[in-house]
Amino acid sequence: MKYTVYLSGEIHTDWREKIIAGAQAQNLPVTFTSAVTDHDASDAAGDVLGKETDSFWRDHKSSKVNAIRTKLMIEQCDIAVIRFGDKYKQWNAAFDAGYCAALGKSYITLHSEEIIHPLKEVDAAAMAWAKTPEQIVEILTYVISTK
Amino acid sequence: MKYTVYLSGEIHTDWREKIIAGAQAQNLPVTFTSAVTDHDASDAAGDVLGKETDSFWRDHKSSKVNAIRTKLMIEQCDIAVIRFGDKYKQWNAAFDAGYCAALGKSYITLHSEEIIHPLKEVDAAAMAWAKTPEQIVEILTYVISTK
Amino acid sequence: MKYTVYLSGEIHTDWREKIIAGAQAQNLPVTFTSAVTDHDASDAAGDVLGKETDSFWRDHKSSKVNAIRTKLMIEQCDIAVIRFGDKYKQWNAAFDAGYCAALGKSYITLHSEEIIHPLKEVDAAAMAWAKTPEQIVEILTYVISTK
Amino acid sequence: MKYTVYLSGEIHTDWREKIIAGAQAQNLPVTFTSAVTDHDASDAAGDVLGKETDSFWRDHKSSKVNAIRTKLMIEQCDIAVIRFGDKYKQWNAAFDAGYCAALGKSYITLHSEEIIHPLKEVDAAAMAWAKTPEQIVEILTYVISTK
Amino acid sequence: MKYTVYLSGEIHTDWREKIIAGAQAQNLPVTFTSAVTDHDASDAAGDVLGKETDSFWRDHKSSKVNAIRTKLMIEQCDIAVIRFGDKYKQWNAAFDAGYCAALGKSYITLHSEEIIHPLKEVDAAAMAWAKTPEQIVEILTYVISTK
Amino acid sequence: MKYTVYLSGEIHTDWREKIIAGAQAQNLPVTFTSAVTDHDASDAAGDVLGKETDSFWRDHKSSKVNAIRTKLMIEQCDIAVIRFGDKYKQWNAAFDAGYCAALGKSYITLHSEEIIHPLKEVDAAAMAWAKTPEQIVEILTYVISTK
Amino acid sequence: MKYTVYLSGEIHTDWREKIIAGAQAQNLPVTFTSAVTDHDASDAAGDVLGKETDSFWRDHKSSKVNAIRTKLMIEQCDIAVIRFGDKYKQWNAAFDAGYCAALGKSYITLHSEEIIHPLKEVDAAAMAWAKTPEQIVEILTYVISTK
Amino acid sequence: MKYTVYLSGEIHTDWREKIIAGAQAQNLPVTFTSAVTDHDASDAAGDVLGKETDSFWRDHKSSKVNAIRTKLMIEQCDIAVIRFGDKYKQWNAAFDAGYCAALGKSYITLHSEEIIHPLKEVDAAAMAWAKTPEQIVEILTYVISTK
To answer: InterPro entries, per this entry (chains A, B, C, D, E, F, G, H) (predicted)?
Structure first.
């Protein structure tokens, strides 16, 4: 059995790399997927279709191009990990969590104790809350590879 | 035909009241629904089931009790309005937006121009973006009551 | 038992009025729904949210506002009637037909013999093809009111 | 991860070949699917089941045989590209777009600026609008192969 | 709570009338629905749309008009009763049973002991098998009105 | 807005009556539904269709007749309350919980602290755990009637 | 792309073998599936679980064991072929057709002209009607292998 | 064709091993999946995310981690076998049965005659009831490998 794990959210720290490396160290049969995490590339995703002068429409066009990818990845994943850093709005991460919840996809949140309260609705629909990438790796290892 | 409109998000300004009053002034056949917007009551929603010493679990318990209500309201609404103020995390609002998107529920966002960029993914899946409650009322009036 | 019938497509002739009058003459327990058929109002549906200089985005914004209404009406109808005139592209009507087909909603097409060939895919997924509004009324009467 | 992209619509220009060649040049892991694009073969798809004298029924029979293929391809695709030329009705393309929209399949439209207005409802439910096959290839490359 | 019960199958005996009368005698809050049971009217359902010379297409056209009604009734019913007489093919009744099964609609079969063996697959997906209309009334009464 | 609450599980104490009385005292707009709770009547539900000598088939036949009712009630409820007493197997209650979970129906468990451990999987998918009928009434009142 | 085609219905002639051989001759990438077609083995499918004295329950038990297989095969097929011979009830074939129709699975019927009228509802929901296995092979070849 | 069979329930006897060995002896193309059956490991599944002092929350956290695995396995299985021993509550097994039933997954129960009566609702929604692992192997062999 092979698993697909979608990694959603914060793009300023190396939590994705840590999870991927940890999973590889455990030989987990997991393919990780993710939105495009290069911030500038992501913001410019729609530019190839024609430049926009209005920033709302530029964002709109790029977000929809990005959504072709993320919608598919969420729908095809077996498990999602949704990461919130202590800074920034990260509304896309909460949006992904709601999307997962409505589809019945299991997701695990990854965030510090500082933001428990504002994340309470997101955590309430999660299957687990982890504080570190290492914990995520341990949970994935348990869930996926225990005989 | 009667409509149900779910009002999600920010609880510190009177945007809900303005929309409801505007819809009544237009005699729209709309029932508005909403999460419990009394902040303290909402945080304490699970206390009746037993006090928790750990704040994570208190939040967890209350959020799940609140989710009995909000999950039902989202699933039963015809249209959602999702409001983001300029302050606070409001991850529950973005979560609701993702939930609506996955269910194929039409939603309209209500927020200022200041936060276009961080809301781009949420707006990309919305059917409209309004800046004022008055615009929401105009849109609802057009959608619901035009012959 | 009450029925909801969605009337989709061409807006330049009085086929809607004829069907509605015919159904009333037969006392059918039917509520008819429809997109906003005032062409100018429909094109301007999004203007209240802010004027657009780019015609693509003006169309885009208005179409999405209109889609809040039509998506709901299609999802809530029991039967759809989809009308194609001999002129104009009317891609929205074919779009509605595809939407109905995917949802498993029964629809009846209403068009002349001149356009059988270009409509063959749309007719192939229809439950019936009528040439006149009077035939639509007869079919609805049979389907709805036969004891 | 492998992707399936369904190419729907106009059959008189070589847009399909251009997209397929472009994707191969980028080594994209994509399988392209399509309705039978040989016009005469498509019109005759049902003839093997017995000749029809009435052209409506000949079209009907052939369209249903073709729909066995296209329905399956739409349901199994990850992304659709829907092409409208400036001429012809191409109602089947708009039908496919509506079908995709109702299933929640992401689609990209491919058409010139001349027909923005009649395609506004179809574009409103699309994830992107491209003017050239080259843009489609760029979008697919971004969506599928960005690390 | 009100119930809708769909009565499918054989049209040559008065089993429908007996069930309806029995339910009325018990004051059950049930609306009964049914295909058009007038054999000639049913066969001619599509004639209003134009006469067909080929009997296959006449049947096809009429069956689809009838299916607008029966598809809706099955999808909206709470319980179905599916009756097989000892004579005739009655493939439409078995078709309705399969349709109910796939939708997860509870159905009760009504037939004599003579045809247990050919109906074994249909009975295997049923919630009950009754031999008389009186038994159907008793089951409905128990299911619907027991406090 | 009216709510339907399904009461599942243990039949030897008066927890149903207490919840119903409590909800009435609060004037909650709730209709309560339930399996047939008369044990003997429930065991005999299928007898009208013919006596069985084999106790497995008698149980089977009666359980399916009862399932016509319970399946419908679960699918139509807004919220379920699932009660486990300290004695008996009550596998039907756990079955109902699993059924609710798969459908995405919110349910609240009602049981003592003694059986937390064996119910951990059932509680993990619940929205709340209550120890007394009074707590259930408080939760319902909060969820349903808070402005 | 690989296809799965489910072959349902009559078991007294060699239509399955002809279709399979024809598809192999065309090198179609098709896996064919089917109910157990050994009549005695099928009737005895449940006997291993304990002998039944009542023939209704023997049939019931065996049919459910067989349904584990057929339900899965229908749900996993891309296309179904449903064969009716001129003799026998073959209600299971019509049941399978209804099941396919409700799931939106394309099916092709295979039967002689003699039984057009009793099969009209089954044919109305089919994508094609063939009279010979050779026609089925031609249709599959066209649908599956046309470039 | 490959099959996935989910083995749910009792963990104190070697019924899983017997079924797996029997299936291997028959060369069945089956992958078996299961919850983590090491009782202590399962109870401790959530401990890595932080120790809990309250046993309800420890159970809750571990059960949700386990549910990431079991939910996925149930949703991905083709057939489930659900085992009840004569002792213990085993509410998780009945929960899994209800979950399967709601998803339309075929399941087979495995239990002794002693507990027919309390399991009647669970058996009523099952496709078969077996008393021994050997019978399960025979049923799987018949269902999966009969030509």
So the answer is: YtoQ_family_protein
* Residues of chain D contacting residue E58, judged by C-beta atoms under 8 Å apart: none
The residue type at C86: D
Contact status, residue H60 vs residue B56, Cβ threshold 8 Å: no
Model confidence pLDDT, tens digit, residues F70-121: 999 999 999 999 999 998 899 999 999 999 999 999 999 999 999 999 999 9
Q: Measure CB to CB from residue E59 to each of G64, G100, G116 and give the nearest one.
A: G116
Chain B residues with CB inside 8 Å of C31's CB?
1
Give H-chain residues touching G41 at CB under 8 angstroms: 142, 146
CA atoms within 13 A on the CB side of H130: 25
What residue type is E120 in one-letter code?
Answer: K
Task: Give per-residue pLDDT as tens, B67-125.
Answer: 999 999 999 999 999 999 998 899 999 999 999 999 999 999 999 999 999 999 999 99
| CB < 8 Å to E1, chain F | 31, 33, 76
Say if residues H107 and H99 touch (Cβ distance below 8 Å). no
Contact present, H64 and A128 (Cβ < 8 Å): yes
Closest CB from H38, H41, H64 relative to A128: H64
Q: What are phi and psi of H146, to 5 degrees?
A: -65, 135
Beta-carbon separation of B131 and C50 below 8 A: yes
Across the interface, do A128 and H31 touch by the CB < 8 Å criterion?
Answer: no
Which residue of chain H has the CA closest to B60? H57
pLDDT given for residue D146 in this prediction: 84
What are the chain H neighbours of B52 within 8 Å (beta carbons)?
A: 54
Chain D residues within 8 A of C120 when measuring between CB atoms? 59-60, 62-63, 92
> What's this model's pTM, rounded to 2 decimal places?
0.98
Among D91, D109, D113, D127, the strongest candidate for a mutation testing the C interface, having the largest count of C CBs within 10 A, is: D91
CATH (one of 1.10.3720.10, 3.40.50.2300, 1.10.10.10, 3.90.400.10) for E3-40+74-145: 3.40.50.2300
- CA dihedral sign, ordered H58, H61, H63, H65: negative
Kindly state the DSSP code that residue A78 receives in the 8-state scheme.
S
| Candidates H34, H38, H43, H65, partner chain A, best to mutate (most A CBs within 10 A) | H65
Spatial distance between the Cα atoms of C24 and G130, rounded to a whole number of angstroms: 43
List chain D residues with CB under 8 Å of G110: none
pLDDT tens digits for chain D (147 residues)? 799 999 999 999 999 999 999 999 999 999 999 999 999 999 999 999 999 999 999 999 999 999 999 999 999 999 999 999 998 899 999 999 999 999 999 999 999 999 999 999 999 999 999 999 999 999 999 999 888
Give the pLDDT score at F79: 98
Q: What's the gap in Å between the CA of A53 and the closest CA on chain C? A: 10
Using CB atoms, which chains have 3+ pairs under 8 A with F? B, E, G, H
Contact yes or no, B with C (3+ CB pairs under 8 Å): yes
Give the residues across from D129 on adjacent strands: D109
- DSSP 8-state class, residue E111: -
Tokens 């510090």 locate to: A112
Total H helices, total E strands in chain B: 6, 5
Give dist(CA A52, CA A61) in Å, integer. 9
CB contact under 8 A, C98 and D95: yes
Chains in contact with B, where contact requires at least 3 CB pairs less than 8 Å apart: A, C, F, H
d(CA D25, CA D17): 12
Q: What's the confidence (pLDDT) of residue C2?
A: 93
CB D69 within 8 A of CB D8: no
